[in-house]
Amino acid sequence: MSVVTIDLAEHPTRYLNSTLHGLRADTNQSFWRVLNPRGKHALAAGVQAPVRVEIAGHAGYFCAGMNKCATVVIEGNAGNGVAENMMSGRVIVQGDASAAAGASAHGGLLVICGNAASRCGISMKGVDIVVGGNIGHMSAFMAQAGTLTVLGDAGDNLGDSIYEAEIFVRGTVASLGSDCLEKPMRTEHVSALAGRLREAGFEQADPAAFRRYGSARQLYHFHPDNAGAY
Amino acid sequence: MRTPRPAPRESATFDREALAEIRRAAATGIYDIRGAGAKRKLPHFDDLLFLGASISRYPLEGYRERCETGVVLGARHAKKPIALRIPITIAGMSFGSLSAQAKEALGRGASLAGTSTTTGDGGMTQEEREHSKTLVYQYLPSRYGMNPDDLRAADAIEIVIGQGAKPGGGGMLLGQKVNRRVAAMRTLPPGIDQRSACRHPDWTGPDDLEIKILELREITDWQKPIYVKVGASRPYYDTALAAKSGADVVVLDGMQGGTAATQTVFIEHVGLPILAAIRPAVQALQDLGLHRTVQLIVSGGIRNGADVAKALALGADAVSIGTAALVALGDNEPCYEAEYAAMGTHAGAYDAWHEGRDPAGITTQDPDLASRLDPVLGGRRLANFLAVLTLETQTIARACGKSHIHNLEPEDLVALTVEAAAMARVPLAGTSWIPGQ
Asked: Which of A70, A207, B298, B367 is most solvent-facing, going by the fewest CB within 10 Å?
């Protein structure tokens, strides 16, 4: 397996993405190194092949946006909306991620080794997100499906207006948002969480040390008595 | 003899409608929700007239001299711009708010007429892709059903910031219409009230929009035109910011534009009528040197060819229809009068599109009701309607001496009211006075 290198000091983002988009599912060119990313936006966005793309530095907005099948590793920090609307595959941020990480993502695994800013997992629709550090306010806002696992602390209004997604936090939660409450951590939750932690490379973390949060399902139907909750 | 008493007098302020609404609110404790667009009387295209040719300019022969109608959308940045035979497109309406049969009929009708149709909240259905030659994929705040494969399968992408019926508001689909298929497409439990987000989850403001447009272009390899749709509220700045952010096309929807379900107070009191929004939007494009480079599609209350011609004369490149298209399919048909009456309304006033009990089979997910709509016949009716809109537009354009309907211009128009003259920036009829200029 050879490594193909694309140097963004020499090529525009458009060249990188169109090259990656041209890869078929059975390509032999399955290992890519992207040099000099310098915080450019939309790097490795829309990839659909089961390849590994390593970005040697910081990425701007929407890195690995709408990813399918690929593994994208960001060897630095990621800007807004990393892995937004990801469908499958995995995206690993070795540094910190800015706001709206994994926004609306439908599937796959997003691992943020550092911290994630506000609205991590906003509107998420099936993705598994694991954050090694802390997450900012309004995370998992309107989260529909999938899991958000946080080894550190969560900011204010966690899980506001959450639907069927599940949240696991090992540290403190500054406050819960509307219609989000703590739920019992049963055996099946511990065992599923252990699998996700292992998958994300955090096997040393004890799954039993996490607390589980989810929807109270009181806002699923509009009722005048709940008007104060909005 | 008794002293004469004053005649009973009802208040103009507290009229019967206002009183009924107060009583309804007092009884229920919740605001009214309905479908459709603003129903109040608004300054509209009816307040404008074309002057027609005269001694100083000559007309074209009807049925003999050509009057072109084609429009190309998205040539600014897209490798594959869209070429339409007519500048009248079908507006975004979701599967969920509409039945699968209605979506198919819209696709069939638009394809027959040589124009595009548009998806809606909830994503793309296979039926509408199959039956729509040119399909615009809406990219909405909720991202329900947002799938990159569908994005790539579309012919253009429309980033929805807002719509005319509710600028600043998100979508609504109440539980009675959320069946298993609709729920699965939106990744939510069946039967719950779906209140879509009003802001995109991963960007805010014009600087971010520019980066979002860049991402969508990168993902689709710069092939697809990218539209930005806004509800008419600050049309000059919204159009300028959309164009500055890199949009190929700006879609501007006035408050008469319909919605599947929104609070009545929102529909009637937020946003601008389309008549007031077109000239500021055109002005923004002209100020940027981008008029006709970035195309402007306007919508909200387009009913006939005169409306189309007036919108184009004010500087739009195309128009979009939603409510009129549904009426062409059979919405509010008098033949269902008994069923409307049973719901406490009548044909022509039915707007409970959110309840999903549409006897015409359009705004419903009930299989029995939906089966009343024949998609092939519906498509034929829509194509007929689009043909009439086009013929009427050409008739007016020829009368004004135009060999392409895009050659219609504000100079061809006058206004019947001071308000319309000010909004459309054309002279009050019989004068040379344009208020404010």
From this structure: B367
